[in-house]
Amino acid sequence: MGFLSPALLGGVALVALPIALHLIMRRRPQRLPFPALRFVKQRCDANRRRLQLRQLALLALRCLLIAGIAAALARPTLRGTGLRGKQAAPLAIAAVIDNAPRMGYVRDDRTRLEAAVAAAEAWFERLPDDSAAAVLDRTRPSAGFALDLNTAQARLRNVRVAARPRPLADAVVEALELVASRGDARQEVFVFTDFAAEAWTEDAVARIGAALRAVPEARIYLADFGVDQPRNAALGALEIGRAALRLGEPLALEAPLTADGSFDALVVELALENADGQWEKRGEQLATVRAGQPARVQFQLADLPLGTHQGALRVAAADPLEFDDARYFTVTVRPPARILLLAEQPERAVFVQEALSPSLLAAGPRQVDCVTADYAAPRGQWDAFDAIWLLDPPPLEDAVWEQLASFAEAGGGVGVFLGAAVGDYQAFNRAAPQQVLAGPLARRSRDATFLRPQRLDHPALRGLKKYSESIPWQVYPVFQYWQLGELANDAHVVAPLANGDPALLERVAGRGRMVTMTTPLSDPVQPEGRDPWNLLPTGPEPWPFLALCDQLAAYLTHEADEPLNYQAGDTARIVLAARQHVSSFVLRQPDGQKIRRSTPAGDAEIAIGATELPGNYRLSAGGASEQLDRGFSVNVAPEQSDLSRASRDVLAAHWPAGQFRLEADPAAMEAYVNVGRSGRELFGWALGAVALLWAGEHLLANRFYRETP
Amino acid sequence: MTAVEQYLKPEVIRQIARLDLRAQFIVKGFLQGLHASPFHGFSVEFSEHRKYTAGDNPQDIDWLVYAKTDKYYVKKFEAETNLTGYLVMDLSGSMAYRRDQQLSKFEYATCLAAALSYLMVHQNDPVGLVTFDKQIVDSLAPRSKRQQIGNILSLLSRLKPRETTDVAHSLNQLAAMLSHSSLVIVFSDLLTEPEPALASLRRLRHGGHDVIVFHILDQAEATFPFAGLVELEDPETGELLVVDADGYRPDYLQALGEFRDAFRRECLKSRIDYVPLDTSMPFDRALMEYLLNRRAWG
Hints:
Oligomer: heterodimer
Strand order of the largest sheet of chain A: 20-19-21-22-29-28-27
Helix content of chain B: 40-55%
Number of domains of chain B: 2
Low-confidence stretches of chain B: 33-44
Radius of gyration of chain A: 40 Å
Radius of gyration of chain B: 21 Å
Shape of chain A: elongated
CATH class of the largest domain in chain A: Alpha Beta
Largest interface: A-B, 31 and 37 residues
């Protein structure tokens, strides 16, 4: 036996009231003349004793009535033999709703999330009003306890599927910490989950177990809303050949398709979405799937015109879990980048020119213009280019350097490949060239070495990462290079030489990029009057040179640095083109909702953080100067499709016995909690007893103090 | 209940202001209700002649007187035995008690006494009146003249119940006063010690008197209709007692029953007529008790 509001038991002290009234304010009986008093007197003593007894009975009834009311208001509960806790304390409850995308699985016309929320809500309905309740989910950290139960229920109703859920263990540990903050209350955490293997890894269970041990009075109740034999067909992570396509380059798409045994063959469709949001089917493929063996679907789409293209791969079959039936993508088809090569002699630019735009190809991926020694071109002429490469430049006038610096500032790419033509290197250490170069030239090194990029995480070399083990850099020795003095503050090394000196350095200037290489890319095998500085372009089968040029060109022309496909919850960044300014734009979300947004003046990119909905997002802006038609796609992480269930034995292994309870059936948990933990409330019975006492008191008092007519 | 009985109820009698009319009303109503007169043929003999008037029974014409005087005279009869009646009224304060009824015990007794005196005077029995509280207060010597009715009624209407009473002493006084065998009719609530009262009644009886005791209680005293917690006050002594009326009623009724039974038993032993009454009872019942007893003794 316990009480939910034991403080109200203090009301029992009010029994002093009727006792005081009994002693002080005895009711005067009605005085009546009656001559036959002698007959009354004969049995007076017995009657007086009975009278006193009855008065005492009435007093006792009144005291009992007051005590009964106080006890009923204190809400007595009957304890079961279940878990033990602070039996009479108020409740501090945290409900953790697993709102991973998997919980969108539909069974009995309800998603698992809806069922979990309904169960949690029903449970909240039964809580005493003085309970502190918190609602946590996997979307974001909790705001703490709700002000009251109604607010908590409103929060429950607002729980939506989290496209990118945080680890469930985070939420459960947070819930435990939250209830632990209410040390005077009964601390209980309810987890409504589908018990999926993704969320209930051994590590996660161990983490929760550690947190549970730290709060020995807390209890965890797990309600299982999972499905034991789910039906599902899922498209895995979409692999896009290149998201930034050159004109004429075909789009290659590939995705794994998994399904359980209930599906034999599945049709996967490729559809493109035009700028108005209309879908247009562009292909379909029949895939044969077996349980446990993912099939792969591949699509190729050629002849995409210039611009941003968005689409999706979809499984053309209905299954209970919807989110993984489609994978969205965004690609962009761009015109060839224009690169201006500046070299003292035309033949010096040949290697680089061929590397960037092979003359064998009718339409090269880039348009490369080669200008010889015409460094002082009018500024407007350079604006047509995306990047300018200075191949082994001689000392130049300050105006040229300043022009290059402002070209980079406005968004262009500048590559300076230093070599033998430097001559008096002091000319390069003046203020104007130092605006572009990564640092002052210190000396010409003749240590034979070779290029050895250590980590290929930098965007300028990221494309080489998958070949990083197989590139034989030592085959292409570097005989001479420029050693730099103290580097500029904003400069850093992209790739060093084998001896540790910097080989490739980068500076960021405004919206543009500036790359300095301390050894040239244009030296022939036998330059006139000197030895070559390196054999990068002229070594045997110099494919690393080609790859390096391609990557540098892509980096300097902002070709490959813009991801267009994100995971839900990522912040999408749309990099604006050089010299492009957008003050406001319209964002069309996957659900068709259009939002007008403005961007601060001068921002080089647009960041969009609200990417919870999977699908295609489109940004558009009108006007001649601000024209914008870009987009990006958001997909849910493929591991969220994994409906396999976690082993429950893990819980017993990591969690202290007696501190948790797992119920497959939420109703069973409710019954267990009712009796086992919070007990069975006796409010109704107590109130009934009070009513009986009241009636008895009324009956006795009425009979006793009835007025003689 | 017949129409006549309706009119014999105390609350109806109360509406008649004059005591003589009340007495007449009660007696006539009673006689009418009785159909056959209980007086016919008992305790009467010739007393005087009077002139015949239309409506008299021709059987009563005294032909001997007609033969002598050539005028019609009828014979009048009078009681054979010269039984003197004494109406003995209790003037105790408790007799003034009235709760729900129209008449107090004293008024009820007065009505009864008036009716009886009317009846007896009409029977040519001499009737007197004695009142007492602690002792005998007033007495009216018995007469059988018609004026006696007026005397008795005027005295009765002047009487007011006093404070305390001593029934035994007063009856003993009365017994000492009476020299011939008389009919003593006592009207009292007998709220006194029973043994001395019974002893004095026996003494009266042993003195050769016929004794009738009209034991008159208020209806409230007979039924104890109170409820809840009440404080009862004796109007004579001022004594107070708090009782729970509901719980006490059975005890009270039992005590009263025992009291009445004791009186009835003792009176029966002594051939005293004991008539327990309460003020809600119709008069005919009270008179019937008296007259039937009288006839049985006759």
